[in-house]
Design brief:
The complex is a heterodimer of chains A (about 290) and B (about 160). By secondary structure, chain A is α+β, with helices and mostly antiparallel strands. Chain A is about 35% helix and about 25% strand. Chain B is globular, with a radius of gyration of 17 Å. In chain B, helix 4 packs across helix 8. Classes of the chains: A alpha+beta (about 290), B mainly alpha (about 160).
């Protein structure tokens, strides 16, 4: 290259960059990213609200004597659960903003419920962890923009089942949406993991994972869905969805079907949000025990 | 959580290369505030339209197209008269002796915009002819021809450049 052009390049590279100005530009971008996540989350909240408004009826199996007497010892069966805001953490310093609600689950009527206690503990541990991370991020990133928004919903509260949902949106350079479900089986008054739904030696992980892959491919093959998942990719196969975790996040929908939930970015690009897959009952009814 | 989504990568790419974008915008706008506006507008547009990127590997050419378009529309908005004057005179200038005076850097900004783009991408941003072709939507051979014409006008000679 001629030396004139080298001089030219040098002159160009020496254009001073205004640090403060670019920091503002970055903040404007953070704000745009956050607004996008917020819009997506609002839309999802509305949708969940509609789903939750559908009445839920569960028929208990005929109770024989032994089971009936056992049930007497489980007073929460048939009782509604109550969720109150245990702690409300607010923070706003102009750059960083937090609105965090920590729930507490109890059985109505002052009943001691093991399931409610377990759900409360897990949910609170999770929210505390997010809050600590937020506080740490403020320290680490100084002037930049952080936001944490945590709310909760009761997805389901029937005679036999209770599901608490935590919606967490954390925004740093980009937003990240996480949803956690805490399911209590009121028949045993315990917190239920996905593995508890199935017979011990069953391979529900493969069964469900294959079904999710099938649904992903079907949606991607239909351009009208606009769906995109991390699967069958040629450029980054290491990020492809392989299988669900043993205790993957889940809840039961109004028809008692298993719905598998993923965090944003876990199995799909950010534009897809936090995605969920409903597993057809016929596929798993042989191994399902609750 | 893989953190590998297109959106995340776009955000990361934009944040990491802000200074480069600023310099290129500055080479068009010639003042700090307008250059910052150009960069900011281009970034916001990129975030709004990131789904158009089919493959994250194309982020660079994709974003530079947004940035160059934003710079040009800025120039057209604010300096319309100046630019059109220049364009009218250009043919005359080039057929006469382009006086080799003033800084080469300044003289580049007096070239027609389409040629400015090519020279800036090639020599400021060190891009390949292929990348420039993608950004400008021109054929590679056209990029090459225009680049040489531009350099000729600047009275800069080059040894054979390979993309």
């Amino acid at each position: 290259m001629s030396s004139k052009l080298e001089d030219l390049k040098r002159e160009y590279d020496n254009i001073p960059v205004p640090k403060e100005g670019l920091e503002q530009t970055k903040r404007a971008m953070d704000r745009a990213v956050f607004d996008k996540k917020k819009r997506e989350q609002k839309w999802k909240k509305t949708w969940v609200g509609v789903a939750a408004a559908v009445a839920v009826f569960i028929t208990l199996p005929n109770l024989n004597g032994t089971v009936a007497s056992a049930l007497e010892k489980i007073p929460v069966l048939g009782k509604a659960f109550e969720v109150v805001c245990f702690r409300d953490y607010q923070y706003d310093d102009g750059h960083n903003l937090a609105n965090v609600q920590t729930p507490e689950v109890t059985a109505t009527g002052d009943l001691a419920s093991n399931g409610a206690k377990e759900a409360t503990k897990e949910a609170q541990d999770y929210v505390d962890e997010l809050t600590e991370q937020f506080k740490q991020d403020i320290k680490d990133t100084g002037e930049s923009y952080n936001e944490l928004d945590v709310t909760y919903d009761v997805v389901r509260d029937t005679d036999t089942w209770f599901t608490l949902k935590i919606n967490a949106l954390s925004v740093k350079a980009s937003g990240y949406e996480q949803i956690r479900y805490y399911n209590v089986d009121k028949k045993t008054d315990t917190l239920v993991k996905l593995s508890d739904l199935f017979e011990t030696d069953s391979d529900y992980v493969t069964l469900i994972s294959d079904e999710i892959k099938r649904q992903m491919r079907a949606q991607m093959a239909d351009p009208s869905t606009g769906a995109d998942y991390f699967i069958d990719s040629t450029d980054m196969p290491e990020y492809d969805f392989k299988e669900i975790q043993e205790d993957q996040n889940f809840y039961l929908d109004q028809e008692n079907r298993v719905v598998i939930a993923f965090d944003e970015y876990e199995v799909a690009p950010g534009c897809m949000g936090a995605v969920q897959f409903t597993i057809p009952e016929a596929l798993i009814d042989q191994i399902r025990i609750r | 959580m893989t953190g590998s989504s297109t959106y995340d990568k776009v955000v990361k790419y934009l944040v990491e290369n802000q200074s480069r974008f600023y310099r290129l915008a500055y080479s068009y706008a010639q003042n700090e505030q307008d250059a910052l506006d150009i960069v900011q507008n281009a970034m916001i547009k990129a975030l709004e339209h990131y789904t158009e990127i089919r493959n994250i590997e194309f982020i660079k050419t994709w974003f530079y197209r947004v940035l160059v378009n934003e710079s040009i529309s800025y120039i057209k908005k604010t300096k319309r008269e100046v630019v059109s004057e220049l364009t009218e005179e250009q043919e005359g200038i080039y057929h006469e002796d382009f006086q080799e005076q003033g800084d080469l850097y300044d003289r580049i900004n007096e070239l027609p915009l389409d040629i400015q783009n090519l020279i800036k991408l090639k020599f400021y941003e060190d891009m390949t002819l292929k990348e420039i072709a993608t950004i400008t939507g021109l054929k590679e051979n056209t990029v090459k021809a225009k680049l040489y014409r531009g350099l000729k006008r600047l009275k800069v000679t080059l040894k054979e450049e390979t993309a």
